[in-house]
Design a protein that fits this description.
The chain contains eleven helices and six strands. The chain is an alpha/beta fold.
Length: about 280
């Protein structure tokens, strides 16, 4: 978690307050898509996804720079997404998809506007991982990493299973043409399994609706869960930190998922001299 450079203490307090509520299991107010200006059906949405223990306020300088540039302002409208960061990466992806769907139902229910066809994602840290997952077709790769049986053969409540299926099996979000990943741990985070990460795993929210559904299904049909995940799923002990552990099976499977052909993507990341791999 970081403070906002050059900001007032009030802004930093608001940023930290929203970030903590989103990571520790509280329900951040106004979660969803936030438009900085009135909707323009002809401008391309520039969709900004913040990281773990963070909030949309980290984008203040970037948003201001876009709006101050005549050429960029003429082509793009800035959309910020406030999303919960206490949930696994695939659940965060599903929630962001739902937020975008809700926004389009309000702004363009007839699917007629040009804005739908030129989405640009910018994701920082955990938000960068979520952004990549919005760009990919998963097939059954993630489901198979978690379960030994297909959804239709799982025991348990069918509504729970359908909801879980939407998190594990998905296609690229329609209309995305570009994505930019900023310091995104696509191969997992080494900090997720260190002392601080282990502490965070214990305090980051575990009582989400998705975790409860997963626990109910795993307990109804334990043998359908991959052995490496069975104990964790039966306890519902899943959150954003556990999903970023490098050796976590679903995260490992997600590593091979690349943006769909036609989506241009860029990665901005630091390189530490002398470290292998870079």
């Amino acid at each position: 978690m970081s403070l906002l450079p050059g900001s007032t203490w009030r802004d930093n307090w608001r940023h930290l307050s929203v970030a903590l509520r989103g990571a520790l299991g509280g329900a951040p107010q106004h979660a969803g898509v936030q438009l900085l200006d009135p909707y323009d059906p002809g401008k391309r949405p520039l969709i900004l996804l913040h990281g773990l223990f963070s909030s949309p306020m980290i984008w203040a300088r970037l948003a201001a720079a876009v709006q101050a540039d005549d050429a960029l302002r003429a082509r793009f409208q800035v959309w910020q997404v406030l999303h919960h960061t206490n949930v696994p990466m695939i659940v965060a992806r599903r929630r962001v998809q739902d937020y975008l769907d809700s926004t389009w139902r309000l702004l363009d229910p007839q699917h007629r506007h040009a804005a739908r066809k030129g989405l640009v994602l910018v994701g920082h840290s955990f938000g960068g991982v979520v952004a990549r997952l919005l760009c990919v077709d998963s097939g059954t790769r993630l489901w198979d990493a978690a379960f030994v049986s297909p959804p239709e053969r799982l025991a348990g409540d069918r509504a729970d299973i359908r909801s879980m299926q939407g998190s594990y099996i998905f296609n690229a979000y329609p209309g995305i043409t570009h994505a930019i990943f900023l310091a995104a741990p696509h191969r997992g985070s080494p900090r997720a399994n260190d002392l601080l990460g282990n502490l965070a795993r214990r305090i980051v929210g575990h009582r989400t609706p998705e975790a409860r559904r997963l626990r109910r299904v795993a307990n109804a049909d334990p043998t359908a869960v991959q052995p490496a995940l069975r104990a964790v799923y039966r306890r519902g002990w899943v959150n954003s930190i556990t999903s970023m552990v490098a050796e976590q099976p679903v995260r490992l499977a997600s590593e091979a998922l690349m943006p769909r052909a036609g989506i241009v993507y860029h990665t901005i990341a630091g390189a530490i001299p002398g470290r292998v791999p870079r």
